[in-house]
Amino acid sequence: MQAQTRPLRIGIAGLGAVGKKLAETLDAGMDGLVLSAVAVRDTAKAQATLGHLKQMPVLTDIAGLAELCDVVVECAPGALLPAIARPVLEQGKTVVVLSSGALLTNMDLIEVAKAHGGTISVPTGALLGLDAVCAAAEGEIQSVRMVTRKPVKGLLGAKYLVDNNIQIEGITEPVQIFKGSPREAAVGFAANLNVAVALSLAGIGPDRTTLEVWADPTVDKNTHNIEVVSDAALFSMQIQNIPTENPKTGRITAQSVIATLRKMRAPLRVGT
Ligand SMILES: NC(=O)C1=CN([C@@H]2O[C@H](COP(=O)(O)OP(=O)(O)OC[C@H]3O[C@@H](n4cnc5c(N)ncnc54)[C@H](OP(=O)(O)O)[C@@H]3O)[C@@H](O)[C@H]2O)C=CC1
Ligand SMILES: O=C([O-])CC(=O)C(=O)O
């Protein structure tokens, strides 16, 4: 059998907290992967951000990525998801989606992927244990409960808070600001709770999964607690995410994408 020799060409859509880390890691060298292109809206700003790379990728716009790449990582605002994903999927390629909340209002992308042989990959991102949740979903899951606690600055500006006139600046003790489903949270907390949607897609869906969100001035990390009850296993998980320069996004998010990409070309693949 022929060995795979051509490196997978990776594209990045969005050069924020996640995209920059991803670009630097790919540029430093990853087996079988090469950074080909980055979609930005301000080329001069991107040139300054990436000026220290050994090899400057092609700087393009969102529409330019599909042609230049085999795999595109979406790490942009969720509203851009269809514009980023559709052309990639129409070419039968892979899009790695971080704005997983936006998938719920763009489920037609799954049909596009199916029709053209493309793939939508949702990494574990800022969460943990989606391997166990996927495995449990092969049997019967009775319940999935998630409780998120974030420092105030990780929640400021969320649509849900604005729409409901909920003030969290200056609170001195934890306040529950939301109780509902990941489907509702994807609308009200588009940039804060993609993790809840990813969890729901791995398990029992965005309507049956339950979610509480707390604004918590006593924590300095984005903290997610998850409890799963299934016929195969009962499990509890917690992750405390150290924020990046974007207080809404944990450092582990970019590393989760890096691990996902590495696996695409690895001869040994560990984890579901
Ligand atoms: N699934 C998960 O576990 C997680 C998902 N996320 C999600 O991942 C995404 C990326 O997060 P993060 O890196 O922190 O976000 P940032 O806000 O730091 O970066 C987003 C980037 O997208 C860029 N952008 C905006 N519009 C365009 C456009 N038209 N063309 C090209 N680029 C554009 C912005 O550019 P500019 O600099 O010009 O404004 C910005 O650099 C977010 O949607 C976030 O909610 C985050 C954490 C965890
Ligand atoms: O889900 C998100 O978008 C971000 C998040 O909760 C985290 O980084 O902990």
TrEMBL record:
It is an enzyme of class 1 (oxidoreductase). Gene3D superfamilies: Dihydrodipicolinate Reductase, domain 2 (3.30.360.10), NAD(P)-binding Rossmann-like Domain (3.40.50.720). Keywords: NAD, NADP, Oxidoreductase, Pyridine nucleotide biosynthesis. NAD(+) binds at residues 126, 194. Belongs to the L-aspartate dehydrogenase family. This is L-aspartate dehydrogenase. Residues 14-123 form the Aspartate/homoserine dehydrogenase NAD-binding domain. The iminoaspartate product is unstable in aqueous solution and can decompose to oxaloacetate and ammonia. Pathway: Cofactor biosynthesis; NAD(+) biosynthesis; iminoaspartate from L-aspartate (dehydrogenase route): step 1/1. The lineage of its organism: Bacteria, Pseudomonadati, Pseudomonadota, Betaproteobacteria, Burkholderiales.
